[in-house]
Amino acid sequence: EVQVVESGGDLVQPGGSLRLSCATSGFAFGAYNMNWVRQTPGKGLEWVSYISNAGKISNYVGSVKGRFTVSRDNAKNTMYLQMNSLQPEDTAVYYCYSSGERYFWGQGTQVTVSS
User: Fold this and answer.
1) Partners of 71 in the beta sheet?
2) How far apart are CA 101 and CA 24, in angstroms?
C-alpha cells in the first residue's frame, strides 16, 4: 500500500520558520522526482518546489527562492521543505507528490503564518 504523509505544518508568526516532512512508503521513493505544491482558497494550486530523484537538482517558484530549501533522504524515503522567513502569503495547505511513471499524493499539512 502506497502512503504519502505530510507533517510539520503549524501556526507561525511572520518571519518564523517551519520544516515540513513528506514521509512515504510502498513505492520506490528513490526512483521518483518529488514536488511540493500549496493550495489556498484564493490562488488555487501553486507549484512550490521540485527535487530530482537523487537530490542533485532542485527548483523553486520565484516567490520562495532564497527562503525555502527542499531536500530528501532516500534512505528514509522522506522529503523535506525547510521554510524560513515565512510571510502571511505563504499560508496554505502544503502537499507533496511524486512525479514520473506514477503520481502519488499526500493529504496535505496546513501552514498558517499570522501574528
Assistant:
1) 80
2) 16
Compute CA distances 39 → 5, 44, 89, whole Å.
16, 5, 11
pLDDT in tens, 69-101: 999 999 999 999 999 999 999 999 999 999 988
Q: Which helix (H) or strand (E) holds 74?
A: none
Indicate the pLDDT class of residue 42, thresholds 50, 70 and 90.
Answer: confident
Residue 19's contacts (CB-CB under 8 Å, 6 or more residues apart) are 8, 80, 81, 82, 83
Chain position carrying cell 516567490 = 63
| 49 and 33 Cβ atoms separated by less than 8 Å | no
Euclidean distance between CA atoms 54 and 40, whole angstroms: 30
Residue 18 pLDDT > 90: yes
Q: To which residue does cell 507533517 refer? A: 7
